[in-house]
From TrEMBL:
InterPro entries: M3A_DCP (IPR034005), MetalloPept_cat_dom_sf (IPR024079), Neurolysin/TOP_dom2 (IPR024077), Neurolysin/TOP_N (IPR024080), OpdA_N (IPR045666), Pept_M3A_M3B (IPR045090), Pept_M3A_M3B_dom (IPR001567). This is oligopeptidase A. It catalyses: Hydrolysis of oligopeptides, with broad specificity. Gly or Ala commonly occur as P1 or P1' residues, but more distant residues are also important, as is shown by the fact that Z-Gly-Pro-Gly-|-Gly-Pro-Ala is cleaved, but not Z-(Gly)(5). Pfam families: Peptidase_M3, TOP_N. One of its GO terms (biological process) is proteolysis. It comes from Cryomorpha ignava. Its EC number is 3.4.24.70. Belongs to the peptidase M3 family. GO terms for molecular function: carboxypeptidase activity; metal ion binding; metalloendopeptidase activity. Keywords: Hydrolase, Metal-binding, Metalloprotease, Protease, Signal, Zinc.
């Protein structure tokens, strides 16, 4: 999952998926701004080595509000200067100045993102709730600035008859479309309503996120020593440490996060406890209390529909997808519906295999959702003689990190060197930093931050973000990129061992970081991306985990240091399509639900009922849930980053499977130099400087075909 900040003209997307920001109530805000100290550390230019780095060691929650208010004031002053420039509008005096504006706020938002996603606290959440509507007002102040838009439109109109240079033309078109999609051409009354809706939504997004985080922090299952059956020593030691940290010494804590839930459901022999842990996790935001998200989601859907209707669109999906690769909700649904029948058919086969194992073992049960992972693991052992825990012994996080750096060296010519301890400020002692350089020239590319462990106040999941993005229009800037995970921290002295799935996710998020580092764009706007395309690069990088070079050199046993045996490697590759029914169906159910919720009439919608009825219509297998049930679907309801865009992982995976086949067939395989050069040139370096479909055609010489995806998942291929 990729998280971005954008403040150069009209967006701010926070690490919690979105924090759309803005302010119009000048008198009220100006009073607050007077309290803001000019020397607020969150607003100050970054100093120190590597082109300047964030002062993470000096950030305080107490500085947040003043920094945000002052940052917005400064940004609005810059926007007003652009809008009121008496000179005729040009690319340089309008578009370039917009690209340059907002540096102070942009810096402050980086700290805000850390405090929101990596180090949240009740104190910060109160400030976050207070700021959310002000952020929205600020955003509307810019997106609805009539003078500003007329200058943008003048530059855009001129470029349609006298085209600019290719990258400048792309910037102008992206900015113009961005303003148009956000109501710049509405009349005064509609603009006011549009802004009011955004303000209300911003508060709802914050409330949604805080509800989910509350349920993650407060639903913890504590085990006794007699209830540890099936769990590995490493997991038990970690659970004991977490329980001790939470004031329950002598017990073992299963936290309400995926990284804790998933291994427990896979290995625990305590079926009733598996049910309890499963229920806690999939009931986040759906417990019928003050933190329940169902009514909140219904209101979000109503407001989103009303907002796009002001612009003349039938529904939110139609508005959102117009500038994505899919273009229309129908195209996105067609892809998902093409894969869905094969996915649920495979689930039926997987459940049949699991039930057979349960029956043979004398377990008097019918497979339920909290049994799926447990019995799937037994089937894996029986069918492929593959033990996930055995595989895990070769997957040490430190070695996987080295493996990712090796891949980056082979494909991108990068070298990763740990920075001297204390030379770069970090926001937590668990964060490590590497310098990234070009292996040939020694040129500094940037810094890579890694925050690997789960902790209280850190949101669940895995994500990548940037603290500074590459651009050259105003002096060359290097990249500060970060990967964030939620691995359960091992007990002192123990190696952190992860599952194959978690290792794949680790590579995936590193793919986003490489996308940031390889950027070769001039203007900040071009460093963004199209949602159903930007997951492609990271999904493709997952494929290097299973290459021989990585397996033979980095997947070594945590006790003996011996390389993974060839027989075990063969089993892993043979079982590569195992459980694809489960993984494809749980994901697709969420993606289809996202789209259907936004296509449905939101008036009087009952979210719980809609979810149940939609799943029934889809013939959703009862033995597994959606990967993200609606009340906890942060991708879609804690902001708008993935709203009607969760399908994008599948869209991107069509490209991924197709490109992976091309690498596999190349003379040098996945490390073929010609393919690697084209990968960087066409798929990574351009970022959003060209249409994604055109970039892919330049790489492959043709459009992608769905057949590779079906083959990759072991599903029947009925056509390309």
């Amino acid at each position: 999952m990729i998280k971005l900040f954008k403040t150069k003209h009209i967006f701010i997307i926070s690490l919690t998926l979105i924090a759309m920001a803005s302010c119009t109530q000048d008198q009220e805000i100006s009073k607050e701004v007077q309290k803001s100290a000019v020397d607020n550390i969150l607003l100050q230019p970054w100093t120190g080595p590597y082109g300047g780095v964030p002062a993470f060691d000096q950030m305080k929650v107490a500085d947040v509000k003043d920094a945000m208010l002052k940052g917005m004031e400064l940004n609005l002053d810059e926007i007003d200067a652009i809008a009121n420039n008496p000179e005729p509008p040009t690319f340089e005096n309008t578009i370039v100045e917009m690209e340059r504006a907002g540096e102070e706020l942009d810096r402050a938002m980086k700290y805000y993102g850390i405090l929101s996603s990596n180090q949240s606290s009740p104190e910060f959440r109160d400030i976050q709730t207070e700021l959310a509507p002000l952020f929205s007002e600020f955003r509307s102040k810019i997106s609805q600035n009539e003078k500003l838009f007329q200058r943008i439109k003048a530059v855009y109109d001129a470029s349609q008859t006298t085209p600019l240079e290719a990258d400048q033309q792309r910037v102008v078109e992206l900015i113009y479309k961005e303003f148009e999609m956000n109501g710049a051409e509405l009349d005064k009354a509609k603009k006011e309503r549009y802004a009011a809706i955004n303000k209300e939504l911003s508060s709802l997004y914050t409330e949604f996120s805080n509800h989910v985080l509350h349920d993650e922090e407060n639903y913890v299952t504590y085990l006794t020593k007699a209830q540890l059956g099936g769990l590995s020593d490493g997991f038990v030691k970690s659970a004991a440490q977490i329980a001790t940290d939470k004031g329950h010494e002598g017990k073992y804590a299963i936290t309400n996060t995926r990284s804790s839930m998933d291994p427990f459901l896979t290995y625990s022999t305590e079926r009733e406890l598996r049910k309890q842990v499963w229920t806690n996790y999939y009931s986040r935001g759906d417990n019928g209390d003050e933190y329940d998200n169902n009514a909140l989601i219904a209101e979000v859907l109503r407001l989103r529909r009303e907002r796009v209707e002001l612009l003349g669109y039938k529904n939110y999906a139609e508005w959102r997808l117009q500038n994505r690769m899919a273009k229309t909700p129908e195209n996105a649904m067609n892809l998902m519906e093409a894969v869905w029948p094969a996915a649920i058919a495979r689930v039926a086969e997987e459940v049949e295999d699991m039930q057979a194992v349960a029956d043979k073992n004398g377990d008097d049960i019918t497979i339920e959702p909290w049994d799926y992972r447990f019995y799937a693991e037994k089937v894996r052992k029986e069918k492929y003689n593959l033990d996930s825990d055995e595989v895990k012994q070769y997957l040490q996080l430190a070695n996987l990190t080295d493996a990712m750096h090796y891949v980056a060296g082979r494909l991108f010519n990068y070298e990763f060197t740990p920075v001297p301890e204390g030379s770069v400020p970090v926001f937590h002692e668990d964060v490590n930093v590497w310098e990234v350089t070009d292996k040939t020239t020694g040129e500094n590319i940037g810094l890579w931050y890694l925050d690997p462990y789960a902790r209280e106040g850190k949101r669940s999941g895995a994500w990548a973000t940037t603290y500074r993005s590459y651009s050259t229009f105003d002096g060359k800037k290097n990249v500060l990129a970060s990967n964030n995970s939620n691995f359960v921290k091992p007990a002192p002295g123990e190696a952190l061992l992860v599952s194959w799935d978690d290792a794949t996710t680790f590579f995936h998020e590193f793919g986003h970081a490489l996308h940031f580092f390889s950027s070769n764009v001039k203007y900040p706007t071009l460093d963004g991306g199209v949602r159903d395309y930007t997951e492609f690069q990271s999904q493709l990088l997952e494929r290097w985990l299973s290459t021989d070079e990585v397996i033979n050199n980095y997947l070594v046993h945590n006790k003996t240091g011996e390389a993974m045996p060839a027989a075990l490697v063969a089993k892993i590759k043979k079982a590569s399509t195992f459980n694809q029914g489960f993984s494809t169906t749980e994901y697709l159910a969420s993606a289809i639900m996202d789209m259907k919720l936004h296509l449905a009439d939101p008036a009087n919608i009952d979210i719980d009922k809609f979810e149940r009825e939609t799943l029934a219509e889809l013939n959703m297998p009862k033995e597994l849930p959606m990967r993200h049930r609606t009340p906890q679907f942060g991708h879609v309801f804690s902001g708008e980053g993935y709203a009607t865009a969760y399908y994008g992982y599948m869209w991107a995976d069509v490209l991924t499977a197709d490109a992976a086949e091309a690498f596999a067939e190349a003379p040098g395989g996945f490390y073929d130099q010609e393919m690697a050069d084209k990968l960087v040139k066409y798929l990574f370096a351009p970022r959003n400087a060209m249409e994604p479909a055109e970039a892919y055609r330049l790489f492959m010489g043709r459009d992608a075909k769905i057949g590779a995806l079906m083959r990759d998942r072991g599903f029947p291929v009925t056509g390309e």
